Amino acid sequence: MSTMKQAAADFLAGKRVPVTGVSRKPQGHGSNAVYQRLRQRGYEVFAVNPNADQVEGDTCYHDLRSVPGDVDWVLIGTKPETAEDIMRECAELGIKRVWMHRGPGPAACRIRPPSMAASTASP
Prior knowledge:
Elements: H1 4-12, E1 16-20, H2 30-40, E2 44-48, E3 54-55, E4 58-61, E5 74-76, H3 80-93, E6 98-100, H4 114-120
Parallel strand pairs: 1-2, 1-5, 2-4, 5-6
Antiparallel strand pairs: 3-4
């Protein structure tokens, strides 16, 4: 069994990463900070926001399906009610590695009922 440190290193070894929730107004948005940090560290990042065509000076994709080529993992940095739909999209696209970035607010960490968790789990 691998250690937590090794598991994190294996996860982060993938370099093509869509980041959801990147905002056109970067001030105070956690997803923008993570997007910038990943880019600075050599990751090929893709901004994903259904309401923007460009963010951080880069092309912005409206959904994960629009990102060109294969991706190694996805960083979800949206509100919980949006994150659920993104998780479903990841499952439909066969994306098995997802990092959910906790955002601010009382609903940022909520536990879904087991019936909901089972309906979004991949086989």
